Amino acid sequence: MENKKLKLKIQNFKNLFHLSEAILANIYYGFPSKKLKVIGVTGTDGKTTTTHLIYHILKSAGKKASVISTVYTKVGNQETDTGLHTTTPRSLLIQELLKLAVDHGDEYFILETTSHALDQNRVWGVNYYTSVLTNITHEHLDYHKNYNDYLKAKTKLLLSSKIAVINRDDQSFNRLNKALKEKNVKTLTYGFQHKSDFHIDFKQNLTDFNQFNYLAAYSVCKVLGLSDQSILKAIKSFELPKGRLDIVYDKDFKIIIDFAHTPNAIANVLKSVKNNYFGKKGRLIHVFGSAGLRDATKRPLMGEASAKYADVIILTEEDCRTEDVNDIINQIEKGIPKKFKVLKIQDRQEAINKAISLVKEGDVVILTGKGHEKSLCRGRIEYSWDEYGAVEKALKFLI
After folding, report:
1. Tens digits of per-residue pLDDT, 11-42?
2. How far is the C-alpha of 53 from the C-alpha of 231, rounded, in Å?
3. Neighbours of 203 (CB within 10 A)
């Protein structure tokens, strides 16, 4: 109990610190978001793809826009990293980039916004014109403690926007819609399974979960006043962000890199791979782990999701931090049926080597959890890591 009270005090202090920093940053940079149409994108899965697609559509339509996402920040022609394991940076950097966008003459700014940033006041003072929610599934319960608190954190973004766009088909819809109505926030919906304000069948071959991401981006751009013609034309030329369902080898077998690191994301991406990348033969070989010092309750659920679609599972490290990687692996394994043969290889490079050594013609190897990230945290040290380079190393031993 004393430990919980101490953690709560520390978190309250951090929130107060971030709020103070946000107030000072807004004052110092002159509340720059008031001179932009800021678009917030939040949700458990699909935030980054949706963020990048909105940015791509706006740029393709000739609009001046900037973006902050998990993959990078881009203001004008200047592209920089967001930071290690960071999606929404600290307020000082957010406000600086918003000011740079104003100075660049931008009209729009797309800000991928996490529940942590919302709860910690990092986006205090950001004047959101519209925001969109992709979904709310099992994640970050180490921080938010329960689903209700997680949902409340996400709701903060929608409540602070002039126009909120929400997923009609998501489990969170009824509660979100009620909260938004109580505060008289203009709310629009998108979806495929229920009657919604925005519904469109995309012609191109998209995975089921990306259909929702594309519809979310389409809906936001309609709110911004863009025509169907300009939106759909841009969608045709869009390429997924790095580390999102990225086919990096495609000959007699395939290797795919994806950032999926939640039970829902793993289930969706593996299901999609099964449905779209297999012929009459072939196995799905899945390599993954789970981050240390993060939501441990999701680990067996990740194992369960993998076992539902994968034929071979190799459990390995993913930023174990100060946790024992073998403990994490064993927790993931608890969700995998006993009859399922699981390989446990602590070192991620060795796990990838093993996966690729097992391939036969028609197989698909998928690596999830790291995607575009450039470091791997072991203990308290961030080691340089490149998932793409790891695949190249493994292929050298095979080819």
Report:
1. 777 889 989 999 999 999 999 999 999 999 99
2. 10
3. 9
Sign of CA dihedral 225, 229, 233, 236: positive
Partner residues linked to 133 by β-bridges:
42
pTM for this predicted structure: 0.91
Distances from the Cα of 152 to the Cαs of 116, 148, 158, 216, in angstroms?
11, 6, 10, 20
337-368 residue pLDDT tens: 998 989 999 999 999 999 999 999 999 999 99
Separation between Cα atoms, residue 65 and residue 334, nearest integer Å: 46
Tokens of 139: 């994640």
In CATH, what is the architecture of 246-398? Alpha-Beta Complex (3.90)
The token pair at 147 is 């689903």
**Domain limits, the chain:** 2-236, 246-398
Q: Which CATH superfamily is domain 2-236 in?
A: Mur-like, catalytic domain (3.40.1190.10)
Packing angle, helices 348-357 and 387-398, rounded to 10: 40
Maximum distance among all Cα pairs of the chain, rounded to whole angstroms: 62
Are the CB atoms for 299 and 335 separated by under 8 Å?
Answer: yes
Q: Which of 45, 122, 109 is CA-nearest to residue 83?
A: 122
